[in-house]
Amino acid sequence: MSETTKFLLSEDQMPKDWYNIAADLPVPPPAPLHPATQQPIGPADLAPLFPMALIEQEVSTERRIEIPEPVREVLRLWRPSPLIRARRLEKALGTPAKIYFKYEGVSPAGSHKPNSAVPQAWYNGQAGVKKLATETGAGQWGSSLAFAGSLFGLDITIYQVRVSYDQKPYRRALMETYGARCVASPSNETQSGRAVLAQNPNHLGSLGIAISEAVEVAALNEDTKYALGSVLNHVLLHQTIIGEEAMLQLEMAGDDPDVVIGCTGGGSNFAGIAFPFIGMQLRGGASVKQRRIIAVEPAACPSLTRGKYAYDFGDTAHLTPLVKMHTLGSTFTPAGFHAGGLRYHGMAPLVSHVKELGLIEARAYHQTACFEAGVMFARAEGIVPAPEANHAVRCAIDEALRCKAEDRAKTILFNLSGHGHFDMAAYQNYLSGGLVDQDYDEGELAMALSGLPNVG
Amino acid sequence: MSETTKFLLSEDQMPKDWYNIAADLPVPPPAPLHPATQQPIGPADLAPLFPMALIEQEVSTERRIEIPEPVREVLRLWRPSPLIRARRLEKALGTPAKIYFKYEGVSPAGSHKPNSAVPQAWYNGQAGVKKLATETGAGQWGSSLAFAGSLFGLDITIYQVRVSYDQKPYRRALMETYGARCVASPSNETQSGRAVLAQNPNHLGSLGIAISEAVEVAALNEDTKYALGSVLNHVLLHQTIIGEEAMLQLEMAGDDPDVVIGCTGGGSNFAGIAFPFIGMQLRGGASVKQRRIIAVEPAACPSLTRGKYAYDFGDTAHLTPLVKMHTLGSTFTPAGFHAGGLRYHGMAPLVSHVKELGLIEARAYHQTACFEAGVMFARAEGIVPAPEANHAVRCAIDEALRCKAEDRAKTILFNLSGHGHFDMAAYQNYLSGGLVDQDYDEGELAMALSGLPNVG
Hints:
- 2 copies of one chain form a homodimer.
- Chain A is an alpha/beta fold and 456 residues long.
- Helix content of chain A is 42%, strand content 16%.
- A 7-stranded mixed β-sheet of chain A has the order 1-4-5-15-10-11-14, with helices on both faces. In chain A, strands 8-7-6-9 form a 4-stranded parallel β-sheet, sandwiched between helices.
- In chain A, helix 13 (268-284) links the parallel strand 10 and strand 11 (292-298).
- Chain A is globular.
- The interface between A and B is large, with 52 and 52 residues.
């Protein structure tokens, strides 16, 4: 008798709608504000950037939002993604805990990002939009939007953080293979970019700057809209398909997690796995199992654990609305650690909100500990996780070891948000002993926080 | 009503045995010969290199050979692999043909190679072997054996062709992440390597040289055996799980292929998809559907289409037995095109044999045409194929376009042997217009063929 390793759903079992946590929150999240008026923004303020269907999702309080069939048709290229029981890792750890992971690395771009790139591209296409501008750090989001754009015939321009553009040419090649145009940011193509270059022609760039460039292009060009890979409500909404599938798969496995874990940068993959479980708790109250939900972030960019919960800008040039979130300040520049997807000064407002409500825990790890966990995972389960996902792996292993120490057979679920095949230089760095644990600079953090906008 | 995209098997439906084409061949393939005596070799001659269980598989004529449960347990980490209907590609081509592909890129190493690496590592472990030596070109086989070694606690040493070792550090990082040791070949660790370096200290290496180094280490060290990633009968046997699964999945789809396509270097992924179908034809005779089975190779290394069917060595230093195969001569050095996994002077004896029996067709393509097909495939289906797999994609597209021209709705099946995430430099080269179609040199080929051993 063989024990099942992978819990697979048929295409028919793929969720037909997304789960919107806004429907179940006991307190609504603070509204985004217009930076000039400091008044709540309305749909019209967002219309230059997004098509109306996505704006409606951004503000919706409907619990379930239908996934359009043309979007489902594309998602079926790789979804439902597998839920895998990490039996070999359990044995290697000698833990009584059961460890499950949801594996999002099976997508064409190798991460969870296409879950939102595909609907964003489709809704824009439906609205007659021909061009999308976006930013990317390590390139996971950029390659996902490039992929989605190729399917729906959209022109995609991607402002890629200069340091990644130079250091990770293979991610760029992936974007170009899908037909997208990649521009090193800061660039000469925008006023935001030129302003930065005027001060420092060799600026390495940042996500905040790249966002400014993409937003500016969308705001100034009638035929161009903007797409963001995390942070916004509608992006988190699209990612809930991860947790919705995981629930069905855990049911197949006859199991129910005690702990749910995801890594957090902007917050989308974490929300994807966590929000459906949080929603179940919110709706069921004391009658349902109370789970621990853990968001894991890099110690060098610790917005949830060290940031201030305050109104801040999402970008450097201050072109975005003000949103209330855990932030390190929009001028904070994280150290150049390897998990590029987690190098963002802020946090998704919805993730920050559930943190404030006490619905989730947050934890920060240094990168050496994360790579150690990633290598242990690879040698047990075969899959080499992306540096971002290693944060979740580290936490899952620590929880499993705690179960061992306490002799408690808990069930742990984590999201393995992507594979590390594009990140082998980082592993090389770790294996050669060259990896350094970076911390944020207390003085720089204090300075960045002191520059927060003065809002109510 | 949505149309199914992926045809998935449950873990229980994964084949429990491998298919051995030797049981169904009308004529047995010519025996391997001992280079000194030119007499057929026996199991004892192979014993220094392989454990007895694999030697038995090498010479077996049993039709079905059971897959040991511990091997199945590991294969279940990613198998059964999906069979996918390329509906978007069909639409993009405007063809009446149906195109299915078996996707082997879902394995931890990203290709079909672990299908044989896992059983090879397991059988060696069962025989008490502690160390394995092997060679790798681009790194697909090396990373697969490194992965398998990590699961069964074997020390793995990989002689990686120098030019790949230098140009593809990320594949090396993957091997090291799994705990293997990687050595640039030619190396100073072996007599074969030192002999080459003495003539040319900057030699770029070749698969033939790397095989010599690994075989030498295994032959001289009691505790070390040798593992090969293609060519040998037992390797092809292990890959038949691809075709066996595909047959079950096509049955689910209610379809039956008219054309079956695989790319060929050493021949293992091609045999994996093709042999089960050839076996069905051999057993059923005229009563079963006669399919076209097409092996696709690089025009710059065209063993099946331009080589001589003759006895030759598998390596440069002539340490291997003589096998009858389509060969370009063991001193032939293929041009440095991107499909490194197809840069081998010979061909699997069993693939050569079925070619001689008229059971398969062979076709050669230049690399630019293959990358053009790969980019078209990526933009339609999302998956970026490995440069090797692009040869199969090109052929499938050409067959589909022929169906369009002739208005015939044929069913095409091809094996997508691996993803291209480690090969984005090659795509970059193609996209930038820098890719050159290389041909073999007629003079060099004639010279290499003139050096073939003089065997009855």
